[in-house]
Amino acid sequence: MPELTAHELLTTTRSVRKRLDLERPVDPALVRDCLETALQAPSGSNAQRWHWLVLTDPEVRREVGALYRKSCRAYLESPHAAGRLYADDPQRSKVQARVNDSVAYLADRMGDVPVLVVPCLQLPSEELPEGNQAGLWGSILPAAWSYMLAARSRGLGTAWTTLHLRYEKEVAEVLGLPSNVRQAALIPTAHYTGDTFKPARRTPLSEVLHENGW
Q1: I need a surface site. Which of 115, 142, 185, 192 has the fewest CB within 10 A?
Q2: CATH architecture of 6-59+112-125+132-195
């Protein structure tokens, strides 16, 4: 894979769903290499309470995939589903429909993705602390995104999803997680088909930028 500039990497790391190669194995060393990069991310007070579950066992992936599919079906039927957003905007609704379709596609195949990565935080107690949730999750989300960027730079596709957390306890039982370990996301990881990614169309900065106040 050609080396990407920082700008290219940041603007072309997309959520890969339909283009994940479900047949091609992923070298475990490649995933470990990406996780080594992820460990360089910042965490609150430099606590580094993160843990990473790498799921490659077919039966474990199947069980997690089944729970993900169950949750995703409920999501797709809800008013918050991607395909129901911006229905009054003809251009944007087309994009949302494609996103909705790709989400449904992955939901039926999550258990077939060669590698599933679950970033977690180990907390001092079983309960989430009150108050500053941004500080808590800010200690794992940058590292998870670094993992996804590292994967992109090494020819792997990923997608960020948290839909499985509707059944967080059930997934935790499948994975044997201690009661004080909380999951942050589920990141399917695989080689991808095709060879092109481009920046996505986004809301113009002028519409979301606020200087010195709202």
Answers
A1: 142
A2: 3-Layer(aba) Sandwich (3.40)
